[in-house]
Amino acid sequence: MKLVVIGGGIAGLAAAHRAVELARDRRLPLDLTLLEARDRLGGTIASERVDGFLVEAGPDSFLSEKPWALALCRRLGVEDRLVRTDDRFRKVFVWHRGRLYPLPDGFQLLAPTALLPFATSSLFSLPGKLRMALDLVLPRGGGDDESLGAFVRRRLGAEALDRVAQPLVAGIYTADPDDLSLTATMPRFVELERAERSIILGLRRALRRAPQPGTSGARWSLFVTFAGGMEELIGTLAARLPPGAAMLEQRARGLERVGARWRVATYEGAGFEADRVIVATEAHAAARLARYLDPALATLLEEIPYASAATVSLGYRRADVPHPLDGFGFVVPRREGRALLAGTFSSVKYPGRAPDGHVLIRGFLGGMLNAEVLAEDDVTLAARARVELREALGITAEPVLTRLHRWPASMPQYHVGHLARVETIERAVAALPGLALAGAAYRGVGIADCVRAGEAAAERAFA
């Protein structure tokens, strides 16, 4: 079988690797080609070692509770390279009125589960706390797909949205919560309301049913990364592909059906025949490939919006940072009017991210609610991040390391109605034999979700 995978990010690499596994297990001949437009593999995953610092340009970890990435690491034989977070510092701060306030212990993304830390927290006003407590007695609501913003206002009030849900969601999806589909991004809360009525009571009951720390035998923390950076995963996957299978700087230009086979053309003038094709690019790139193949499908793909983002990694001498850095990082509500969406204390969260006597802090900028900030040049953008870190953490010294990375149109936005659109896209693709889609645009934006999507596409190719 001749298989062409378009896109060398994590979804495309997972698809290609799974295809190699399936061909080996079934003793089938496989002629594999992976096309990547950039001069390197990995998409938004890129790690850099400089002056003793380990800088992640994009994602710095994956979720262990979603099993697909961890299972892939086990099959690759690299599980021993994984490291967990330092859970002594699991605290997250919220920037409110120029100060960092700790999120109360027991806060589960949108709602509190431990009442005493919540009641004594100075992050929320008394009216805000009382409004959140109303969730305990409110009836079930909702119905069809609802925005996350509407859901949080309805269940917990505007203060819970503005001070917690919006900045936390911005840190994950770089999205506007009033556009974000609740069922596509956080279906757990839809199920909690249906099953338990109260979100707070439902979360508390779920915690009681969950194994307590230290009793489950769980090896991994919620977030997991590689000792040498996330690019270890990319390098390992690439090394398991057949020699010469990955072709860099080959940007797919067109996709057409020729009889019972496919033909992929690139802007560089190359052409590839294939029995199966997996398109593992951003949805807007997939739309360009499909515009003559199926205009209706191309339109659906083009309707998935994307946000741009940037990361700024700053290294400091530890003595120059007055803040204790006793947490994983902080989030910044949009109402604060800052350029930063969030900050991660990278060298606290994971070992080996900074040399002795130094710390590494990473800031996130851009997203749907603050896209205009990315119009600034690199120097100005990095300077804004340094100014805001001075306000948040009291850092007046100049950093010893500055690295900025931009990711234009890289974050798919799951707007209300997203899952219905994805189902329509999947029906259209199913009518095109030998074609599959994979990537973050459809059913999950995380590393583990992309691994699942890529592997599922390979399995469909071999079905």
What topology does this entry show?
Elements: E1 2-6, H1 10-26, E2 31-35, E3 47-50, E4 53-56, E5 62-63, H2 67-76, E6 82-84, E7 92-96, E8 99-102, E9 107-108, E10 111-112, H3 115-120, H4 126-133, H5 148-155, H6 158-173, H7 182-185, H8 187-196, H9 199-209, E11 223-226, H10 231-239, E12 246-247, E13 252-258, E14 261-266, E15 271-274, E16 276-279, H11 283-290, H12 295-302, E17 306-317, E18 329-331, E19 340-345, H13 346-349, E20 358-366, H14 378-393, E21 401-412, H15 418-430, E22 435-437, H16 447-461
Helix pairs in contact: 1-16, 2-16, 5-6, 8-9, 11-12, 12-15
Would you give an account of this structure?
The chain has three domains: 2-43 and 234-304 and 414-461, FAD/NAD(P)-binding domain (3-Layer(bba) Sandwich), CATH 3.50.50; 47-88 and 306-412, Alpha-Beta Complex (Polyamine Oxidase, Chain A, domain 2); 107-137 and 145-209, protoporphyrinogen ix oxidase, domain 3 (Orthogonal Bundle). Helices cover 35% and strands 23% of the residues. It has helices spanning 10-26, 67-76, 115-120, 126-133, 148-155, 158-173, 182-185, 187-196, 199-209, 231-239, 283-290, 295-302, 346-349, 378-393, 418-430, 447-461, and strands at 2-6, 31-35, 47-50, 53-56, 62-63, 82-84, 92-96, 99-102, 107-108, 111-112, 223-226, 246-247, 252-258, 261-266, 271-274, 276-279, 306-317, 329-331, 340-345, 358-366, 401-412, 435-437. The strands form six sheets. Strands 8-7-18-19-20-17-21 form a seven-stranded mixed beta sheet. Strands 12-2-1-16-22 form a five-stranded parallel beta sheet. The chain starts with a strand and ends with a helix.
